[in-house]
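Hi R.,

As promised on Friday, here is the backbone we talked about, encoded as structure tokens. Could you run it through your design pipeline when you get a chance and send me back a sequence?
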């Protein structure tokens, strides 16, 4: 077999080469990134970008944070993999940090958000079988996003993602988000849990109202069922508190985490209160779950967030970013609504020009994301300062004006 030609940054042939190699699942943004440091990344040609998307809300400490780099380096030089069949210290340390700093009592590690959702679904079903008369149905929100494996996809309330993959696991009901009456009406004797994102991220950043999330908690208490909160995007300080549930004064029975949990290394986790932790030996498992390198990175990430009080930075810089965006809305007249939870922001445009805005931002050195033709999403590292905000908003303003004039 002939050796594959090395990919040459100089020839810039990434798009053509990958079109022959990969399954066509991604529409790539036309830039090949090579290096990152803090809030900035550089492409293969050396162009610099301010990263206000953070690898889909993952890079909570920015790129290559020294605490994460050191933890990963030390761990790969010590022990990389053992499986969960042995005791290891990074898993325990991360578990201790998670439990001491949340309202939950127990943790199960996986490798991604979808797997964390699968774990939560299985856990709720097991609990329902043994503690709630065999109830198994889970109510989720329309337009929610919980992942792309079959179970997490079934929980995801977006039929357009379902169509080609039917039949999906049964037992899910979908209700409009932020509509307490609809939630109440959907609960039956077969319901075991309500599963919600405190802030719907992939849908375009829609925070739950306090009334809704508190009402959901009350509903669960009234019916003796479980509240599962998906904090995969909203957790790890992004909301301005370590967990978004704290901003609502509501405690979940089960919480799913992934994304920023290990500062860029792959990991996921499902946490539960003792009362909901119904798994027994053999019920669930994962060869790579709780990977030592990811857990070491998780310890470094969580410690840094807590010790440097990054949620406080999120509240302070997030408020400035919100003000600057409101001023931009007034100046351009192009923005219909700004939805915000800390450093997770959805900018709703009047016109369907989000793609154009993204392209113009890229040309001017800013990475942002779009969740629809009218919605720009920002999820920068939690470490940004006002200078980064000023630079980003200036580029965003230029890009919005250019895209609406195109
Ligand atoms: C709220 C939420 N849940 C679950 C997931 C799925 O996570 P992953 O892509 O790691 O499987 C995502 C990913 O965007 C998410 O935002």
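Update: got your reply. Pasting your designed sequence below so it's all in one thread:
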């Amino acid at each position: 077999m002939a050796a594959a030609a090395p990919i040459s940054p100089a020839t810039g042939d990434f798009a053509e080469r990958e079109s022959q190699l990969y399954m066509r699942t991604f529409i790539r943004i036309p830039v090949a990134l090579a290096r990152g440091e803090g809030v900035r990344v550089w492409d293969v040609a050396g162009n610099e970008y301010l990263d206000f998307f953070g690898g889909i809300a993952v890079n909570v400490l920015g790129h290559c944070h020294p605490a994460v780099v050191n933890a990963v380096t030390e761990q790969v030089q010590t022990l990389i993999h053992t499986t969960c069949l042995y005791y290891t210290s990074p898993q325990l340390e991360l578990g201790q940090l998670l439990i001491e700093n949340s309202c939950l009592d127990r943790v199960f590690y996986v490798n991604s958000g979808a797997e964390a959702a699968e774990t939560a679904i299985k856990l709720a079903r097991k609990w329902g079988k043994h503690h709630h008369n065999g109830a198994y149905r889970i109510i989720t929100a329309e337009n929610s996003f919980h992942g792309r494996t079959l179970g997490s996809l079934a929980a995801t309330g977006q039929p357009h993602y379902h169509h080609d993959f039917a039949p999906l696991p049964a037992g899910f009901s979908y209700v409009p988000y932020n509509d307490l009456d609809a939630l109440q009406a959907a609960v039956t004797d077969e319901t075991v849990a309500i599963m919600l994102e405190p802030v719907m991220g992939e849908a375009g950043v829609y925070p739950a109202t306090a009334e809704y999330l508190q009402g959901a908690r009350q509903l669960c208490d009234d019916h003796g069922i479980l509240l599962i909160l998906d904090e995969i995007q909203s957790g790890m300080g992004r909301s301005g508190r370590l967990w978004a549930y704290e901003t609502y004064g509501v405690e979940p029975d089960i919480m799913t985490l992934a994304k920023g949990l290990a500062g860029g290394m792959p990991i996921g986790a499902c946490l539960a209160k003792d009362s909901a932790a119904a798994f027994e030996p053999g019920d669930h498992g994962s060869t790579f779950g709780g990977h030592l390198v990811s857990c070491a990175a998780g310890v470094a990430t969580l410690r840094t967030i807590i010790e440097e009080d990054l949620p406080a930075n999120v509240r302070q810089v997030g408020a400035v970013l919100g003000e600057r965006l409101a001023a931009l809305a007034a100046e351009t007249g192009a923005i219909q609504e700004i939805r915000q939870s800390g450093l997770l922001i959805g900018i709703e445009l009047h016109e369907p020009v989000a793609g154009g805005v993204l392209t113009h931002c890229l040309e001017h050195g800013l990475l942002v994301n779009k969740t629809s033709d009218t919605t720009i999403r920002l999820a920068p590292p939690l470490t940004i300062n006002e200078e980064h905000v000023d630079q980003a908003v200036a580029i965003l303003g230029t890009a919005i004006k250019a895209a609406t004039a195109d």
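One thing I noticed while checking it: Confidence is low (pLDDT under 50) at residues 1-8.

Thanks again,
M.
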